[in-house]
Amino acid sequence: MDPGLTLTDAPSAEQRRVIGEGLRRYNEEQAGYSDSRELAVLVSDPETKEIVGGLLGRTSLGLLFVDLFYVPSRLRGQRVGSRVLAMAEEEAKRRGCSAAMLVTISFQAPGFYERHGYRAFGTIESGPPGTRRMFMTKTLA
Questions:
Q1: How far, CA to CA in Å, does 59 sit from each of 18, 24, 64, 75?
Q2: Which of 37, 69, 100, 112 could bridge 55 with an S-S bond, Cβ 3.0-4.6 Å?
């Protein structure tokens, strides 16, 4: 019998757990160890202390994956983004990572990442017209 396939844009926490745990076990079998951990650097409003931005990512098998990174416009130009990225990279190095990778959009912040030592290793045309997804990496010394 064929397995059932379901397409959804709202997987449950349990469904995410099953897939994540299955991949974690498989990777551990192949690599001989499992070290995947979430990593977040949170930016809070100086007055309200509410979280207003930050970086979400993970470390796994020697790599830092930057999944989401957002700094509100009112905090840009104050080195907040630079400090967030540096904190994430330093923690990744403490966890044994030798490189970082991320995907950004051409209208987001490729120049910011380049100024911090990232280089593009691939691009894909995407929407809206004239826009590219940029795959970037950095060696963590």
A1: 19, 12, 4, 26
A2: 69
Give the global pTM. 0.89
Q: Which tokens in the block code for residue 6?
A: 């379901």
The one-letter amino acid at 122: G
Q: How far apart are the C-alpha atoms of 17 and 34, rounded to whole Å?
A: 16
Whether 82 contacts 118, CB under 8 Å: no
d(CA 37, CA 128): 33
* The two structure tokens encoding residue 50: 């509410």
Provide the residue ranges of all domains of the chain, joining segments of one domain with +: 36-139
- For residue 29, the SS3 value is helix
Task: Give pLDDT tens digits along the chain (141 positions).
Answer: 999 999 999 999 999 999 999 999 999 999 999 999 999 999 999 899 999 999 999 999 999 999 999 999 998 889 999 999 999 999 999 999 999 999 999 999 999 999 999 999 999 999 999 999 999 999 998
